């Protein structure tokens, strides 16, 4: 279960609908329920995406998330106010933005990083109307982030040009930080009930000695508390209880997840965190 994150997909979906002015079609509905009088009232199912144009009324939407126990959380979303774009944004008024803005530069090598910094410096020198905030935003959202990276932190246009010039020359200066990206950290996620299926983990049991040894150890640990064999359940042996039983599936999933974790660790993958 997603716990505190339950319903967030619906919120994201509706935020995107507000942003793009498009109501998405209702999913997984082939035949509307006969228990609802669709002919009267203003409620209808959308069989296809429909435009949601801006009008004098503020657009609002409700998103409900129903818990398994009957708890209902309801969120009302309202479209964000529109902001008029200022074509003269380059001359930012004092006190209207952050004190400093980081501008990111990246490349695959040191030489390419310095060349990229020099190109950016030349572009900004030729385009004085470009806003410092816009340059910083675009450096993060519109450029690929490659292995060699640098951040030029500046409070004004002159500081940014000076920082880029120093970066291009390979000269250390305050406000310029260089480094190399490192790989992301691994997190092991243990799913809850509902992730199981008949025959789950059988192929791994037969092909991986590390996985098989861990499953055997888990089965032995469980034997003191249950009257069934873990391997029999996963292989659907005649007389074994159903994997759909709550008192069976929970320990079975635990055993599979522990054994998968041990398998990954045998390959050298160590988690930085475990959730589930």
From TrEMBL:
Alphabetically ordered keywords of this record: Multifunctional enzyme, Transferase
Biological-process GO terms, alphabetical: fatty acid biosynthetic process
UniProt-recorded Gene Ontology molecular function terms: fatty acid synthase activity
Domain Ketosynthase family 3 (KS3): 1-79
Highest taxon above the source species: Bacteria
InterPro entries: Ac_transferase_dom_sf, Acyl_transferase_dom, Acyl_Trfase/lysoPLipase, Ketoacyl_synth_C, PKS_assoc, PKS_Beta-ketoAc_synthase_dom, PKS_NRPS_Biosynth_Enz, Thiolase-like
PROSITE patterns referenced in this protein's UniProt entry, alphabetically: KS3_2 (PS52004)
Name of the protein in its database record: Polyketide synthase
């Amino acid at each position: 279960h997603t716990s505190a994150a339950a319903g967030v997909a619906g919120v994201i979906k509706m935020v995107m609908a507000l942003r793009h002015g498009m109501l998405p079609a209702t999913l997984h509905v082939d035949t509307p329920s006969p228990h609802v009088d669709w002919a009267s009232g203003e409620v209808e199912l959308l069989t296809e995406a429909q435009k949601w144009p801006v009008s004098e009324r503020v657009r609002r939407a409700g998103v409900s998330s129903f818990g398994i126990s009957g708890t209902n959380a309801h969120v009302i979303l309202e479209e964000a106010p529109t902001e008029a774009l200022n074509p003269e944004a380059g001359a930012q008024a004092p006190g209207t933005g952050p004190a400093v803005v980081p501008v990111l530069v990246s490349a695959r090598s040191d030489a390419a990083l310095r060349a990229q910094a020099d190109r950016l410096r030349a572009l900004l020198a030729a385009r004085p109307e470009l806003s410092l905030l816009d340059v910083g935003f675009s450096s993060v959202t519109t450029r690929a982030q490659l292995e060699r990276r640098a951040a030029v932190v500046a409070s004004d246009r002159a500081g940014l040009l000076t920082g880029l010039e120093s970066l291009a020359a390979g000269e250390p200066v305050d406000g310029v930080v260089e480094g190399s990206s490192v790989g992301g950290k691994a997190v092991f996620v243990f799913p809850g009930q509902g992730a199981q299926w008949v025959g789950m983990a059988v192929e791994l049991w037969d092909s991986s000695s590390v996985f098989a040894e861990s499953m055997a150890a888990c089965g032995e640990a469980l034997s003191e508390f249950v009257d069934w064999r873990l391997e029999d359940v996963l292989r659907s042996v005649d007389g074994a209880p159903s994997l759909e039983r709550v008192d069976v599936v929970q320990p079975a999933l635990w055993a599979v997840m522990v054994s998968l974790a041990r398998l990954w660790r045998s390959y050298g993958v160590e988690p930085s965190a475990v959730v589930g």
